[in-house]
Amino acid sequence: MSRTGEHAPAGTGEKILAMLLERRDSFVSGAQLSRSLDISRSAVWKQINTLRELGYGIAAEPSKGYRLESSPDTLLPAEIRQGLGTSVIGCKIVCLQETGSTNAVAFRMAEEGAAEGTTVIADSQTGGKGRLGRVWASPPGVNLYCSILLRPRIQPMEASQLTFLSVVALARTIEQLTPLIPRIKWPNDILIEGKKVAGLLNEMSAETDKVNFVVLGIGVNLNMTSDQFPADLRHPASSLFLESGARVKRTDFARCLLRELDTIYGTFLREGYGPVRSEWLQRSRLAGERVTVSNNDRVTSGRVSGIDEYGALLLETDDGTTVQVLAGDVRLMNG
Ligand code: BT5
């Protein structure tokens, strides 16, 4: 590679950031950065200024070099990767400023052969997807929108088990980083005090007897404020900030979520769905409650007795029979 004078190749700022992050408490000399990246020292200086414009606090001392003092809450692969330590999830991380839907990007990358664990994150989405063609409000700068690619060797009918995997990883993350108590509402919502703070949308490519890949889509309202919610929400909604009064650093949340997913995916591959299912049930908002589930024009009512091995909701109806509900919107009958 040739020395590039004032100009640096794309991605240089990210590399400088990674080096500063690695040596967070000490100075890295301009000469060392210039040598490692094969760019001139004035190009290093330019990149440092660009990072400052992005909100990084970087101290510069002529005799010592540069030291990172503070980071903005910008979602960047180099930041998320700091101390990540996962074996599969986040092996590749792509962060986009704005995109239609992270699920759509991850799906396309999967079709082009991206590796298991590839993670796509966006600061904002212009066409965030909910289930059944619904829209997921995805304003910039406040939340986490991410999609993770998995290639498990399972049958298509087992794929819904993966929703439970991501919802449990998400609940664990909220428990670790906030004092809040998340409750899971079948199949894909996380509620706090009865209000929805996160939703999941898994999309799959499969053949009759084989799953090609699954994209786990996760949207979490972290620092969203009341005025940023659409007026016509189906259910009450909130954010972790609104519920706890404390801002959540998006980078920390993303890193912790990827770690939890990595751990629980490992458990799932080794021990199957059993441990995930029991953890899901412990956190379920619905166990023992009377609910109605609507799926298009079909409405089923009963008391929730659990979830089956494929993730279907089990309802005990008034005549004592247990019915299996595969999909739908759940409402608590007295909630
Ligand atoms: C979901 O759908 O809850 C799945 C949401 C998945 C979003 C993630 S973000 C990353 C990835 N990329 C995507 O494009 N999607 C995934 P559903 O259960 O259908 O709920 C959608 C409904 O929730 C909407 O019709 C609204 O009423 C409401 N809603 C929309 N935005 C919301 C938000 N930010 N917070 C809470 N509720 C919301």
Short summary:
With 335 residues, the chain is α+β, with helices and mostly antiparallel strands. The chain is built from nine helices and 14 strands. The chain starts with 11 loop residues before the first helix and ends with a strand.
Verbal overview:
The chain has helices at 12-22, 30-37, 41-53, 77-81, 102-111, 161-177, 240-244, 250-271, 274-283; strands at residues 57-61, 65-70, 93-99, 119-125, 144-150, 183-185, 189-192, 195-207, 210-220, 290-295, 298-307, 313-316, 322-325, 329-332. The termini are far apart. Helix 6 (161-177) crosses helix 9. The chain has a seven-stranded mixed sheet with strand order 3-4-5-9-8-7-6, with helices on both faces. Strands 13-12-11-10-14 form a five-stranded antiparallel sheet, with no helix packed on it. A two-stranded antiparallel ribbon has the order 1-2. By secondary structure, the chain is an alpha+beta fold. The structure holds biotinyl-5-AMP. Biotinyl-5-AMP is lined by residues 101-103, 125, 128-132, 134, 136-137, 145-147, 188, 196, 199-201, 217-219, 221, 233-234, 237. Biotinyl-5-AMP (BT5) is lined by residues 101-103, 125, 128-132, 134, 136-137, 145-147, 188, 196, 199-201, 217-219, 221, 233-234, 237.
Oligomeric composition of the shown chains: single chain
Q: Give the overall shape, derived from the CA principal axes.
A: elongated
Distance between the termini: 64 Å
Which regions have little confidence, pLDDT < 50, spanning 5+ residues?
1-6
Number of helices: 9
Q: Determine Rg (CA atoms, Å).
A: 22 Å
- Largest beta sheet, briefly? 7 strands, mixed
Helix amount:
25-40%
By secondary-structure content and strand pairing, the structural class works out as alpha+beta
Overall strand count: 14
Helix/strand order: HHHEEHEHEEHEEEEHHHEEEEE
Q: What is the mean predicted local confidence, pLDDT? A: 91
- Identify the strand order in the major beta sheet: 3-4-5-9-8-7-6
The hetero compounds bound to this protein are: biotinyl-5-AMP
Strand content: 25-35%
